[in-house]
Amino acid sequence: MPIFLDSSNLDEIERFHRMGIIRGVTTNPTIMRKEGVTGGMSGIGAKAKAIARLIAPLPVSVEVITNDPFKMIDQAKMFAGWADNVNVKITIHGPQGELENLEVIHKLEATHDIRVNVTAMMSAQQCFLAALAGATYVSIFGGRVNNMGYNACGEISKLRQVLDAFQLRAKIIAGSTREVLNVIEWLGAGAHVVTVVPDLLKGMVVHPYSKETVQMFLRDGAKVEESLEPPKPGKQ
Ligand code: E4P
């Protein structure tokens, strides 16, 4: 399941889903807002349900919009009720470093059987703890890690080693893509998934030399089509 789409744009999701190259979708409140989602929980619900329907049975991650542990559980239960393929995103800790989120994550996975994607993580050690708490997915923000002057590949590879060594089931999602190269390099470092913004996915497909080659094939194909006589065998 190597590539997820980091977007809540239905046209983009449908387009890449039709190509068969994405295995899931991730969203967050910032992505939703950028896409024009308003109306609180009903706006988020409408968008999340539309994405879930579009890509089912592939997973879509939807993030809670509260920092209150009780409300997080309520929102998570509501999200999980929207569709079977909705996963719930919870940040690793609160805005001031509050620690209650790990307990919420553990409770959602262990008691409520809700798949959690733990998000906004910048290091292998954060992801390791989220995996121990029982998270289905641990999201490390590779682009932000690199922007802070650390090495995302190093964190991802250390993380993969400990997950495998302790047989933890969490899957690593590397997000916060900034460059086309991030996809292959983060998968190579050990991420199970890279969640990619649509523009970078387009950038992965299109190559200037491929364009030139396709143009040559079409030009010559048109000439072959125009020519009246078939070429003599051996004279090409
Ligand atoms: C991942 O799940 C997040 O939605 C996303 O990749 C965050 O990226 P950003 O650093 O561009 O906000």
Give a written overview of the molecule.
The longest helix is centred in the last third of the chain and has 19 residues, at 208-226. The model has no long low-confidence stretch (mean pLDDT 95). This protein has an eight-stranded parallel β-barrel, surrounded by seven helices. By secondary structure, it is an alpha/beta fold. It contains eleven helices and eight strands. The protein is elongated. Bound molecules: erythose-4-phosphate.
Brief rundown of the structure:
With 236 residues, the protein is α/β, with parallel strands linked by helices. It is built from eleven helices and eight strands.
Structural class: alpha/beta
Stretches with pLDDT under 50, minimum 5 residues: none
How many β-strand stretches?
8
Cofactors and ligands: erythose-4-phosphate
Termini separation: 45 Å
Give a short account of the largest sheet. 8 strands, parallel, barrel
| Proportion in helices | 40-55%
Shape: elongated
Mean pLDDT: 95
- Total helices: the number is 11
Rg value: 22 Å
Kindly list the characteristics that best describe this protein.
single chain, 236 residues, alpha/beta, 8-stranded parallel beta barrel, 11 helices, 51% helix, binds erythose-4-phosphate
What is the topological layout?
Layout: E1 3-6, H1 10-18, E2 25-26, H2 29-34, H3 40-55, E3 60-63, H4 69-82, E4 86-91, H5 100-110, E5 116-121, H6 124-132, E6 137-141, H7 142-147, H8 152-165, E7 171-175, H9 181-189, E8 193-196, H10 198-205, H11 208-226
Parallel strand pairs: 1-2, 1-8, 2-3, 3-4, 4-5, 5-6, 6-7, 7-8
Helix pairs in contact: 1-3, 4-5, 6-8, 8-9
